[in-house]
Amino acid sequence: MIAAAVPKADVKALMNKLLREDAFDSFELRQATVVSFAKFFIEGGEDQPPADGKDQSDAVRSEPTKWSRARPIALGIVRAGGAPKYMKIVFALTKEKLAEVHPNAASLFINIVYEDGAAQITAGSSEHTFSLDRAAERSADEFARGFLRSIGVAAG
User: Fold this and answer.
1) Residue 26 lies in a domain
2) Does some domain include residue 53?
3) CB neighbours (10 Å) of residue 50?
4) pTM to 2 decimals?
5) Is 54 part of any domain?
6) pLDDT tens track for 31-57
7) Burial 58-85 (b: 16+ CB within 10 A, else e)
8) How many domains does the chain have?
9) Is 3 left (phi over 0), alpha (psi -120 to 50) or beta?
10) Gap between the Cα atoms of 25 and 70, Å rounded
11) Strands (DSSP E) along 13-77, which ranges?
């Protein structure tokens, strides 16, 4: 698990990478909350059309939304309301990427929280099968640290 405060000098660069650049575009969005002049919540799941012409309220969320698809919406909210008072975004690694990280890795989440001009990043993972050696967890942490380093963010 990783938990780190982003240095104040790097917060603006992180926010640009998050909202204006494609650094996180390959991740799945699980959820995003942005608080500016109002509270906005984006749930990361794509509605699949209901079967047999049923009511739209019967639509099923089955496909994860990529950040590349939701990022323009989040950027629009920030542009409309100014610097957010609070923002939290939860990303997940795709199943294809997880298989590359470790065969026992079931999930890897990266959480970014921005509040009052400061940012914090946490990352955590889970395993398909319990293991005492924690190899999947170490591999997931190495992947997360490497990714964050590759975009210029120092994290634990």
Assistant:
1) yes
2) no
3) 13
4) 0.85
5) no
6) 999 999 899 999 988 766 666 666 666
7) eeeeeebbbbeebbeebeebbeeeeebe
8) 1
9) beta
10) 9
11) 28-35, 39-43, 46-48, 60-63, 65-66
